[in-house]
Amino acid sequence: MENKNLLTVSIERPFIAGNGDLAAFHHRLNKLDCAAILFCRSGWAQVTIDLRKHEIVKNTQVVLLPGTVISLDGKSDDFDLSFFVSYPEMFREACLRLEPSFFHFLKENPCYTLPENVTRAVHGLMNATVAIYTDYENRFRNQIALNHLQSFLLDIYDKTYRYFTKKEIEGGNRQDEIFNKFIALVHEYCTSQRDVTFYAGKLCISTKYLTGICRSVSDDSAKKIIDDFAILEIKVLLQSTKLSIQEIADKLNFPDQSYLGRYFKRHEGISPVEYRAGERPQ
Predict the structure, then answer these.
(1) pTM of the predicted model, to two decimals?
(2) What's the rounded Cα separation, in Å, for the pair 264 and 262?
(3) Are residues 191 and 159 in the same domain?
(4) For a 10 Å CB count at each end of the chain, is N or C smaller?
(5) Within-domain flag for 226
(6) Does some domain include residue 282?
(7) How many domains, the chain?
(8) Is 72 within 8 Å of 34 (Cβ atoms)?
(9) Are residues 136 and 225 in the same domain?
(10) Which residues are within 8 A (CB) of 83 and not within 5 positions of it... i.e. 6 or more apart?
(11) pLDDT tens per residue across span 71-83
(12) CATH (domain of 229)
């Protein structure tokens, strides 16, 4: 699976499918501007997805939503997976009728391993995806792929509600509901907003109440969660672009590059320039 393929779906080429091993992501942060459904056929891999480490083994299905940050930490020589990658507009059109809580759950729980006896449908869906993708002469190819993606998402929806409780998916109480909304807002706004007050205002609650909820649910403060994702965004830009530090500061709404440098060093112990050069704190 070449890095360029995963990241270059477009309106003109709204989906791709095939097999690969994520080698292009090895020790490199990548922020996806697409949606991807992955299914492990053999071997194992360790990945970091939005700051959380996951193990992928045979029959693990992975759903990566647009904006997800992923890196490959390690893999076996026989690691192989199938992939179905779609342009965000195609993905949004395919999932219009599914509840937002389902996608909030997938964002926080992107990987799960299926029992062997229920993988036949996934193998069939992936094989069909590749067949659709390679049928270049079909004048209805993109529409067929969209309909197929809807079917695939319905299968994922079924498996999610079959193997997780409604409470796990939708949240069991008011605190869980607020925390899930907060995390969704952080994913959406952390590139420009790093103040707890902003998120508390969006949720119509006090900053003290929001921080209390975050500590209760995750053991971290609201500020730490925001900063962790902001730092991740900076790392992605340092690793995957040639933007200058000033350009990154502008893009992420920092007053200037000096402020960004101090912010980054306070959290990481090294400067952005040192991080980009491959240095890491001991």
Answers:
(1) 0.86
(2) 5
(3) no
(4) C
(5) yes
(6) no
(7) 2
(8) no
(9) no
(10) 1, 6, 16, 17, 18, 19, 20, 36, 37, 38, 39
(11) 999 999 999 999 9
(12) 1.10.10.60
**Domain range enclosing 228:** 174-276
How far is residue 110's CA from residue 274's CA, in Å, rounded to a whole number? 31
What gap in Å lies between CA 4 and CA 39, rounded to an integer?
19
Cα torsion 264, 268, 274, 275: sign: negative
Burial of residue 270, with CB atoms counted within 10 A of its CB: 0-12 exposed, 13-18 middle, 19 or more buried: middle
The Cβ-side half-sphere exposure at 204, using a 13 Å CA radius, reads 0
Classify residue 206 as left (phi > 0), alpha (psi -120 to 50) or beta. Answer: beta
CA distance 145 to 151: 10
Residue 206 lies in a domain: yes
Q: Are 105 and 168 in contact (CB under 8 A)?
A: yes
Nearest Cα residue to 162 out of 102, 84, 217: 102
- Degrees (nearest 5) of the Cα angle 45, 9, 148? 80
Distance CA 97, CA 116 (A): 29
Beginning with the edge strand found earlier in the chain, give each strand of the sheet holding 45-49 in spatial order. 30-31, 69-75, 45-49, 52-56
pLDDT tens-place string over residues 133-177: 999 999 999 999 999 999 999 999 998 988 888 777 776 688 888
| Beta-carbon-side half-sphere exposure of residue 235 (alpha carbons within 13 Å) | 23
CA-to-CA distance for 220 and 278, rounded, in angstroms? 28
Q: Which of 52, 30, 27 is nearest to 220 (CA)?
A: 52
pLDDT tens-digit map of 49-67? 999 999 999 999 999 999 9
